[in-house]
């Protein structure tokens, strides 16, 4: 609990807190420099949860997106190994604004390939992937604080894994499935407490699930489809769900269409039924990425391989796809994304 005395001289604590709660998140970096009291308040989980409880947070979509060639590694005297370098792009659906976050200091020329995004208490979490030069898997965890506009390195993922499911539930980031450095599919799962910078092991799933997809439905974290080591590329129709505190996974049969890859294209219908966005009415067919933003969903993709990205806002209640404009400098390929409630 943060001491709230003297937030604003002359005002009662409750009114002063209410005033500061209403400040837009873009003003927080400047507000933290007003005084030590404000600095501690704006960095506290208590203040974030108070803003969330009173409806003063904002949901943005963060994407792992290919960078324009003139802003990526071609400007550095380093020969790039891959065609593209990737960075983090932020889209605010309310203001329709786009921005790019500064590179992770450890990877100034581009994020690890196939890294995954999640969030916790208003912070962006980047984890895993392949080193963009050596293609070896990495266990790195990086946390971006929108209040300080800076990165910090978190505690490494305990087990080496790639192509795993990830999602945030009750402030903790859960990773599950994927495969290890020997391409063996995994059934293990871990939870990361961002504020404590600690990992805790969760129960194992009922089976191995490589290239599975993670999403949150209500108060449960779902791991959708994937395949076993001996079934390379043959995606399962089952899924598993985990509720924090339950201590076990619940297996759901026939939750997904067998043989269809679930990565980034799992939609959730009104009654909780899963469906593939590749069959959606938008016309996008390649490189689909889905980000849930409260009552609506952001969907990106292209109509053909290598084509420019298209952006749609999908109303969850009606399923209607509304096309949104994208600036030309932000129409590069989007690999994955997540929602951050700032």
From TrEMBL:
SMART domains: Kelch. It comes from the Eukaryota. Coiled coil: none annotated. GO terms for biological process: negative regulation of cytokinin-activated signaling pathway; regulation of phenylpropanoid metabolic process. Residues 9-49 form the F-box domain. InterPro entries: F-box-like_dom_sf (IPR036047), F-box_dom (IPR001810), Kelch-typ_b-propeller (IPR015915), Kelch_1 (IPR006652), KMD1-4 (IPR044595). This is F-box domain-containing protein. It comes from Acer yangbiense.
